[in-house]
Amino acid sequence: MRYSKLFLPTLKEMPAEAEVISHKLMLRAGMIRKLASGIYSYLPMGLRALRRVEAIVREEMNRAGAQEVLLPMVQPAELWRETGRWNKYGRELLRLEDRHDRDFCLGPTHEEVITDLVRKEIRSYRDLPINLYQIQAKFRDERRPRFGLMRGREFVMKDAYSFDADEDGLHDTYQAMYKAYCRIFERCGLEFRPVEADTGSIGGHASHEFMVLADTGEDTVACCTRCDYAANVELAPVTPDRHEGQPVKAESMEKLREVATPGRRRIDEVTAFLDVGPERLIKTLIFVTEDGPVAALVRGDHDLNEVKLKRALGVEESRLADEKTVMDLTGAPVGFVGPVGLAGNIRVVGDYAVGSLSNFIVGANRKDAHLVGANWGRDLPLPELYDLRTITPADPCPRCGGPIELKKGIEVGHVFKLGTSYSQAMGATFLDARGRERPLVMGCYGIGIGRTVAAAIEQNHDEHGIRFPMPIAPFQVIITIINIKDGEMVSAAENLYRVLEDRGLDVLIDDRKERAGVKFKDADLIGIPIRVTVGKKIKESGEVEIKSRTDGTVFIVPSDQASDKIKELCS
C-alpha cells in the first residue's frame, strides 16, 4: 500500500474529547472517527488492525473445534420474553418496533437466538457436542459511553455458544475455550491474566474474565504474588475473621452514649472529629431490592461490594437508596444512619469483619449525632453475616494465604458456564442414549475485538504514539523514502517494497512529498513495528536503516540483504 493513496487522516494535536490514551491515539492515528456517542467508524488503518485480531480469533476457534455462523442482529422480543430477559436486561437493550408494531431489539448478545436455532435442529445426543461462533457487531445502549472503543455502544464481538449433553461435557468444552483464549491473547502479543469473575447479566454458575493489564483499566484484579490465583475484586472472597460474632465480656464494654457530630457525614469527617481510626466505625448503607429494603453494614475502612451483596441477598437488582428513602426508613439523613433499632423494621446484613468489633461507633439515626461504645448483644442483635466487602492488599490470598496485590485490567474476553438456564427456559432439549428428554447444557464465550485492539494500544505506546505488537499491526513494515525526488532512493525503496510483498509481508511505502521529519513522526504515531529508511546511505554505501518501533533497535544492512533481515524480525 502506498501512503500517498491511503485514507489516513492523522491529527497533530491530542483530541480534547478523548480521556484514555488508546482513544487519543486511535483518533490521532486516523484509525477511527466518531459518528455519535459511543459509535465509531473504522478507517482503513483501524479496520486492518481489527481484521488481524479477527484472523487470530478465527484460527484458534476453528482449531478448538468451533464452527462459524452469522446470526441476525435484529432479534424478536418473543425470544427474550421466553427467558425473562426482555424486562430484566434493562435500558441497555435498545428496543424497536417494525411497521406491524411487533417488538424487536438490537442484539447485545445472542444466547436467545442461538438457543432458538439449536433447539430446532438438535434432536439426539449423537448430534452433540456442538460449538458455534460468530464475529458480528453488537449494540448495548450504555448509559455513559466513554473511552472510545473501550466502552462504546456499538462494538465488534466474537461470541461463541456451546451445547453439551451433560456437565462433564461442558467442563471439557469450557477448558478447550479457556485454552483457546489463552492462545489468542498470547498470539496478539498482550500481557494478560485469566481471572475468576461474576457472571453478571449473562447468568450461569461459573466464569472467567481475560484481563489485559494496564494502568487505565476500569476493572481491578486481585492477584496473588505466591500462587496463580487471580480474580476480579467483584468476586474475590475475603477470608472471614475467626473472631467474628464472639461475645464481648461485660466488663470490657464501654457505656453506650450519643455524641453530637454536627455536619460530619463522611467517615473521614467523623473519625477526625472523634479522633479514632476508621476501623472503629460501622457504615450503614441502605439498599432497595425487589425483596424490600436492606441495611448493609461494613467497617469504615472497607468498601461494600455490591455484587457480593446481591449474591448474599439472593436478589437480581439492588440500588443504593436515595436520600428521601433513607429518611423515610430510618428517620435520619444520609451520613447519620446506624443499625441500632433497625432490626425490627428492615432486614440488616453485615460483613464478617463487623462481627468481630466491640465498642464501635455507628450513626444514631438522628441528624448530627453518632453512638459511641456500641456492642453486639447488648445494644443491638448481631446481623446476618456474609462476605460483603471488596478484598484489599491487607487480606490474604483466599487460595494459599499469600500476599495479594491489586492491578488494573481491561476485560477483553469472558467465558461462562451457562448450564441449563437458557435451554430450560426455551425448551431446548435432546434425547439421551436411553431415549429420555433432557435440556442442553450450555456455555458461552465472548471476545471484544475492537476492545482488544484498544487494550493493545493501552499496553503498547510511548510519548510518540502507538507501538503495535507485530501480530495485530495494520502493516508489518513501513518504508520511508527520505527524498521522493531522488531517483536512486526511490528505485531502491520500490525494489525492496516489491520483494517484501512477494515474500508475504504487509508493507506501507511512504511515497509522500513530505519532509523526512514529518514522515518519521507519522511512522511513530501509527506504530508500524518495522521502519525501513531509504536515505543517503543508499547512495554512499548501498545500505538501508531498519529500526524496531518496539525497542528502538537499529540495524544498518546492505539493501540486497534487507529483505532477509526484515523477514527475520517480522517472524
Supply database-style keywords:
571 residues; alpha+beta; BirA Bifunctional Protein, domain 2; Rossmann fold; nine-stranded mixed β-sheet; five-stranded mixed β-sheet; 27% helix; globular
Give a structural overview:
With 571 residues, the protein is α+β, with helices and mostly antiparallel strands. The chain folds into three domains: 12-191 and 419-458, BirA Bifunctional Protein, domain 2; 250-386, YbaK/aminoacyl-tRNA synthetase-associated domain (YbaK protein, Alpha-Beta Complex), CATH 3.90.960; 475-570, 3-Layer(aba) Sandwich (Rossmann fold). The chain has 15 helices and 31 strands. The strands form eight sheets. Strands 3, 7, 8, 9, 10, 11, 12, 21 and 24 form a nine-stranded mixed beta sheet that branches. A hairpin with a 2-residue loop joins strand 1 and strand 2 (39-42). The chain is globular and about 95 Å long. 40% of the residues are buried. The model has no long low-confidence stretch (mean pLDDT 94).
